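Ligand-bound model needed. zinc ion.
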Amino acid sequence: MKIRVDDITDKPRLLTFEEPYDAFPALASIHKIGQSEFLSPITVELTVVREYGHIRVKGEVSVGMRFACSRCLALFDSVLRSDFTVFYTEGNHFDSDEDEVELAEEDLVSVSFEGEEIDFSHEVAEQVIMEMPLKPLCGDDCRGLCSTCGADLNEGDCGCESASFNLKFNALKNFKVEK
Ligand SMILES: [Zn+2]
Ligand SMILES: [Zn+2]
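Prediction:
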């Protein structure tokens, strides 16, 4: 996911990339842990343009992923998408520990580059990671597992429902699967 700096002009240019997840070390290690899997190549559309003192890159990244629901543990697939803008500035006017300056707006990132090429891989991988849900849900209305018997409540009531409201309420509050 590279472009020669000389090929970037003040006329916006659209670039499309498609690369397997294991071309990105950070994504490969997420996949290896196994809680989330990549099902498709990472697809990226970038519009690059030179303006003022920097290069502006507006991008959209998408990838098919498989997650385990944090409530019912079922596996489900979904397409993860993220829109982002990165400003690349030539030279290293930043201290090494300030290479990346996050600006006020969340998905606006400023990065410095050196040399004749810009490699977008690092920022693209970072966008994917930021977009990954911390607590994936198979659906907003997922009912989770019964805290008493462990049954998947999405498949119907297990019978423990007849317990008092208090019990049910506490079970939801301190969700854990009893052994
Ligand atoms: Zn679920
Ligand atoms: Zn139950």
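The helical segments are 25-33, 121-131, 165-173.
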